[in-house]
Amino acid sequence: MSQPTHPAFISYPKQATFGRNLPKNKIYEHSGANTRLKELFVEQVEQIVWQYKLAPETTNLPAKPGVPEIQVFAIQLKTPELNLDVLRCIDGAVQFPIVFELSFDGKTQVVAAYKRPNETDVSRWVLSEYFACGWLPNDAQRAAMPLALDLGGLYEQLLKRLIPLPARGREGLADLVARVELVASKQREVDKTASRLSKEKQFNRKVEINAALRQLKTELEQLSH
User: Fold this and answer.
1) Within a domain: residue 184?
2) What residue ranges in 56-199 does DSSP mark as E strands?
3) What is the structure's pLDDT at 1?
4) What domain count does the chain have?
5) Do 223 and 183 contact (CB within 8 A), yes or no?
6) In a shared domain, residues 38 and 132
7) 169 alpha-carbon distance from chain centroid
8) What is the pLDDT of residues 87-125, one digit of tens each?
9) Same domain, 42 and 128
10) CA distance 160 to 128
């Protein structure tokens, strides 16, 4: 029986293999990690391997502004949960977009944030929230690398495979990520309003809150499609 697969679990080209261990202290040096972050690395991370370097010379795809290369880091975990501050720290230390493959107990999960240069200071990077697929068996079938005209297009395809909402017509990556963040914010409003409704005793107030809740749910539905 074939193993379940996920479109974000990619078979990267052999010539892009880099396969170097990344010492934790190098990350600390480049990110200015504090004591708490260093403790998280020690408790949760077994090993970090710089697995693939997707660059013009390893993919035959030209670089794009903001995406000169894409790095793929394989992280072997000591614990089933990883604090996302660990990934933020690594993303802060490495000046390229990164796709992470986390491994624990025979399973792998692909995780990445949309990472782009800050418009006012190109030496700094802006990170979105992290997107992830579910955990897959390590031996699951990997998907073919998506076709793209350049590394920017490849990065967009890799991330869209992790983002929980389908992109609309000609919606670019930045707009899609902004919409995902709006959906999350609207969902929090829905949850908060539903909680208020369940606690409200007064009938008139209940009617008002219920109307507000219906409106929020309509807005959430529109944003989600």
Assistant:
1) yes
2) 70-77, 98-104, 107-117, 125-132, 136-137, 143-144
3) 46
4) 2
5) yes
6) yes
7) 22
8) 999 999 999 999 999 999 999 999 999 999 888 887 788
9) yes
10) 13
- Residues 121 and 16 grouped into a single domain: yes
Backbone angles phi, psi at 129, to 5 degrees: -70, 170
What is d(CA 77, CA 47) in angstroms, rounded to the nearest whole number?
Answer: 7
**Structural domain that includes position 48:** 10-163
Indicate whether 3 belongs to any domain.
no
User: CA nearest 102: which of 77, 133, 134, 139?
Assistant: 77
Query: Is there a domain that residue 168 lies in?
Result: no
- Per-residue pLDDT tens, the chain, 225 aa: give them: 455 578 999 999 999 999 999 999 999 988 888 999 999 999 999 999 999 999 999 999 999 999 999 999 999 999 999 999 999 999 999 999 999 999 999 999 999 999 998 888 877 889 999 999 999 999 999 999 999 999 999 999 999 999 999 999 889 899 999 999 999 999 999 999 999 999 999 999 999 999 999 999 999 999 998
CB atoms within 10 A of CB 90: 23
CB 52 within 8 A of CB 17: yes
